[in-house]
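To: structure desk
From: M.T.
Subject: fold request, one chain
Message: Could you run this one when you get a chance? Sequence is below, nothing fancy, just the single chain.
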Amino acid sequence: MIRAVHALSLASRFLVTLVVSAALPLLSYGWFSVRSMREQIDEQVVRVFLPQLAADHADKIEAHLQATDQACAVVREIARRALDGADELAAFGEQVELVPDLLDNHLDLLLLADAEGRVAYWRDGLRLDPSTHARRAALIPDSVADAPWFQAVQAQRGRHFLPWGRSPLLHRGQELRSMDPASHHLGLALDVPRPEGPPGVLFALLRWTEVQAVLDEARRVLVGRASLPGAEVFLLGRDGTVLAHTDRAHYGLPLSPPPLAGQLTPAAAMGRTAFVDARGRAFRCGFAPCGRASARDFVVGVAVPEHELFAASDAFERVLLIAIVVTVLVLLVWSLLASRTITAPVQALVAAARRIAGGDLAVAVPPRGGPELGELAGAFNQMATELARGRQRLAAAERDQAWAEMARQVAHEVKNPLQPMRMAAQLLQRARSEKDPRADLVAERLAKTVLEQTEALDRIASDFRAFAGIAPAQMTVVPVDAWLAEICQQCAGLFAGKPVDVALQAGAPDARIAIDPKSLARVFVNLVQNAHEAAPAGVKVRVRSAVADQRAVVTVVSDGPGIPTNVLGRLFEPYFTTKSSGTGLGLAICRRLVEAHGGTIQLRHSGAGETVFELALPLAAAR
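Reply: Done. C-alpha cells follow.
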C-alpha cells in the first residue's frame, strides 16, 4: 500500500486528496440525509398519518351507523301505535317522512310487519331511482313471517343486525357478485312492542353508498393533499371479505394477500403493516377497527405504494446523487487544472534537471506556478549557474592538474634515460682528461648508451602522444579473421627468439569491421607484450574471434600467472603499472584506441593459468 502511494504522481495524489476530502463528506452527508428523510417519512406517515387517517374515517363510518341506528330507534317508538289501525298506520307514514335524513341519506328501505309477519308498511329510500319503484315493489312480499330476521326478533326481542350483502327485498340474483355499492346494505331489525301479544318488527336496510362515500373521501385526501394517486382505502369484514373499496373491482372478494387479512382482524388495535400485492408492488398500510357491535365489526385500511410514499425521498436522493456527481466532476476538472498548474513547473524542473545531468548547464527554468514554485525555479536557475561556474573552475583545475601530472610523468620518464647518458659522458670526459688509453672504448660505450636511451625516449614520446588521443589515421573495412591472422604473424615476428607462442582460433569468417589497422594492431601487441613480461619463461597466447549482437568479439587468452586481485580495478588507469619501468600508459592507450573505434575492451577473467581480455568492435555496414 505504501509503495502504491509513493508510486502515485503529484497530480494523482492531489486529485485523490481532493476527492477524499470533498467527495466522501458529500457522499456521507447524502447517505445520512436520505436515511434520515426516509425515517422521518416512516415516522410521520407510516406510523402516524396512515393509522390516524384510518381511525378518523373508521370513526366517521361508526358515527354514521350509530346515527342510523338512533333514527331507526326513533321510528321504532313511532311505530308502537301504527299497528293498532289504519288511521294510526297512515299517521305513522307521515311521521316517518319527518325524521331527518332517514329516507334521504340513511335508509334504502323501511318495512313494518305486524305480529303475524304481514307487511303493514314499506317505503323505499329517496335516493333510489324512481323509475324502478315498481320493480322494487314487486320484490316486497305480503308476509315476512318466514324471514330469519323476523323470527329472531320475535324470539329474542330487542335488536337484530343483518350482515353485509345484497337483500332479496331490493335485488334479484343473490348469487351474483355486484361491484356497485348501491347493491349492498346492512340490515337492522327491531321489535315493536304491543300492549298485548307478540311484537311487530321494524326492518331497515342501511344505505351502503354512504359508507363508500367515507372511503372515497379518504382517498381524495390522499390524492389531493398528499399526492398519493396509488392510495387505496378499504373496509374489511370479520371474515376477511372486502365490504367496501375505493377500487370497486375488489367488492366481495377476500382481501389479498391472505397474510394481510390475518393481521387486519376486527379485534386488532390501530396499527401499521407492510405487504406486497399480487403484481409485486410494495405497500405500506395503516388500519383501525370500526364498531364493536355484533355483525358490524369492521376494519378500515389505508394502503399506499412505497414508491409513492417515498417519492420525495427518492427524488431527493436522485437530486443529491446528481449534485454529488456534478460536484465530483467539477472537483476532478478543477483538480486536473490545478494539478497541471503545479506539475507543469515541476515537470519543467525535472526536464531541466535531466538536461543538467546530461551536461547542459545553460538551461534556465521560467519562474511560474505561484510564488513558491517561482522561488524554486529561481533557486534552480541559480544552482545551474553555480554549477556551470563550478564546472569551468573544475575543468580549469583538472587541466592544470593534468598538465602538472603530465609534466611530472614526462620529467620522471625522461630523467631515467638521461641518467646513464650523463654517467657515460662524465666517464668519457674523465678518461680524456686523464689520457686514459680506454677513452675510445668508453666513447663507443657512450654512443651505444645514447642510442639505447634515445630509443627509450622515443617510446616514451610515442606513449604520451598516443595517450593524448590521436585519432585513427584512416578507417578501412577489413575481414576480422584475415586481419587477426596478420596481427598474429606480426607478433610472431616481433617476438621472434622469445618464448612467446601466438595462435589464432578464427570464428568469424564473414564478419567485417571498419578500423585503422595500424593503430589498432598496437592494442594486440601491447597485450602480447604484457603477457610475455608477466611470464618471461614462456607464454602461450590464443586469439579467438566470434560475432555476437552485431559486434565482432575478439578474446585474447594467455596462460601466464594472472594479474593480482588487488590491482584489477586499476588496470586501465593512466600512469598505473605493476612493473618497475614503463609509463603505465599501455592499457590506458589500448582503451582509448578501442573506444576511438566505437568498441570496448575489458578484462573478463584473470587467474593462475588464464587471463582473458575481450574486445568488442561494431561490424561494418553491409554493402
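Reply (cont.): The longest strand covers residues 539-548. Let me know if you need anything else for the meeting.
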